[in-house]
Structures are given as C-alpha cells and as structure tokens.
C-alpha cells in the first residue's frame, strides 16, 4: 500500500503525463489489461482516460484495472485514473518513505 506522502509524490509526477489509454464503450477487457500491464512495467506511472461513452463508473473501471494489473491506484480525478506499479526491470521512480 502507498502512503499519503508517496501518493502526493506520484500525483506530482503524473501531473505532466498525458493519458496513454482510453476506456470507452466496451469497458475494460483482457487485452487492455495486458497492454496497460506492459506499459506499467515500462513506465511505472501512467494515466488512463475514461471516455464519456464508457458504460461503467470510473471507480469501477479503476478497480478492474487495479485488480487486473496488480497496480496501485494513485488517484481518480475527473475522468482520469492514475496507476502506479513498481517495475521489476526498469525502475525509474524512487518513492519517498
């Protein structure tokens, strides 16, 4: 679990990122979860945008992504979900304690 301090740190890092993935009408599917997992391994921190036509609630989408990718949910803000997962091969971010 992330501490409040770590979440604040990650939010500040994520502020400048653009969403790489978009969840639309089809909701979350296996292929998307796989792609987001791979992107998290490469980047550690990313944004996912929930489109207006998505039938699921953004918090439901966030839970599905967290369960599927085993990532940490940093924040749901507006229609954007911020996810973090420490990379095994490609560690870039040093979290504060």
Automatic annotation (TrEMBL):
GO molecular function: RNA binding
InterPro entries, alphabetized: RNA-binding_CRM, RNA-binding_domain, RNA-binding_YhbY, YhbY-like_sf
SUPFAM superfamilies in alphabetical order: YhbY-like
Record carries keyword RNA-binding: yes
Keyword Hydrolase in record: no
Keywords: RNA-binding
Pfam families reported for this sequence: CRS1_YhbY
Name of the molecule in the record: RNA-binding protein
Record organism: Sutcliffiella cohnii
